[in-house]
Design goal:
65% of the residues lie in helices and 4% in strands. It is mainly alpha-helical. It folds into 3 domains: 89 residues, RNA polymerase sigma factor, region 2, helix turn helix motif (Rna Polymerase Sigma Factor, Chain: A), CATH 1.10.1740; 52 residues, Winged helix-like DNA-binding domain superfamily/Winged helix DNA-binding domain (Arc Repressor Mutant, subunit A, Orthogonal Bundle), CATH 1.10.10.10; 84 residues, Winged helix-like DNA-binding domain superfamily/Winged helix DNA-binding domain (Arc Repressor Mutant, subunit A, Orthogonal Bundle), CATH 1.10.10.10. Strand 1 and strand 2 form a beta hairpin. Helix 1 packs across helix 2, helix 4 crosses helix 5 and helix 12 packs across helix 13. The longest helix is centred in the middle third of the chain and has 21 residues.
């Protein structure tokens, strides 16, 4: 077994140093792919950060039984990650600062996931990047892939349920309108306290009681305020 395979094996066993070393030793692969995509309106460093995510995924997903070199497997993964970024980017025009923050957030999310052994929370990610959770949530969702309203999300018994059905269904308490992409587009129009409430409820998955404690108001007030905010957001849709 060569050194690269030994490092991959160690990385799969949870050895962070082995994983970091693999990333460091294969940076040349990332740059070799990045050069193919220069001149498309993005800084090389931004593309490198996206490519790094592809490399990390390649390390994590590489099957030791594959009869291929690691570099042969990694290059398509890196290329795919960059292509996905370029494809999704530009569907909704957003500011360069948000794009840059979203790029940094993707890379930092991968790193934190390894060190924590789980997916980091919005607060943890915001702390690592030294930005406000609301600002980070907007940046991350600004780069989300736009879904068709008529995408089938369930199909059974001959009846299809489409994404638009969930957005229009007003009977459920939480309501499908709380699709995070929609929330992000409307967050900036809310007052600071209202923004904080929505972020805690729908990005941080906190209960109304937990939100009430943080805002210094009662759970009943949180419930009423939340309902009022959602009604306002629906009207603006």
């Amino acid at each position: 077994m060569d050194e690269t395979m030994e490092l991959i094996q160690s990385a799969h066993a949870g050895d962070k140093e082995a994983r970091d070393r693999l990333v460091s030793e294969n940076m040349g692969l990332i740059w070799s792919v990045v050069r193919r995509f220069l001149g498309r309106g993005h800084e090389p460093e931004d593309l490198f950060q996206i490519g790094s995510i592809g490399l990390i995924k390649a390390i994590d997903k590489f099957d030791m039984s594959f009869d291929v070199r690691f570099s042969t497997y990694a290059i398509p993964m890196i290329t795919g990650e960059i292509k996905r970024f370029l494809r999704d980017d530009g569907m909704i025009k957003i500011s360069r600062s948000l794009k840059e923050m979203a790029t940094k957030a993707r890379a930092e999310k991968e790193k934190l996931g390894v060190s924590l052994g789980r997916e980091p929370t919005l607060d943890e990610l915001a702390g690592a990047l030294q930005v406000e959770p609301t600002e980070l949530a907007a940046a991350m969702e600004s780069g989300a892939e736009v879904e068709s309203l008529y995408k089938t999300i369930y199909h059974g018994d001959g009846n299809a349920i489409y994404l638009i059905d969930k957005l229009e269904d007003g009977r459920e308490e939480d309501e499908g309108v709380l699709n995070k992409i929609v929330i992000t587009r409307l967050l900036k129009e809310l007052a600071p306290q209202e923004q904080r409430l929505i972020v805690m409820r729908y990005y941080m998955d906190k209960t109304q009681t937990q939100v009430a404690e943080e805002l210094g108001i009662s759970q009943v007030q949180v419930s009423r305020l939340e309902k009022k905010i959602l009604q306002s957001m629906r009207r603006r849709l």
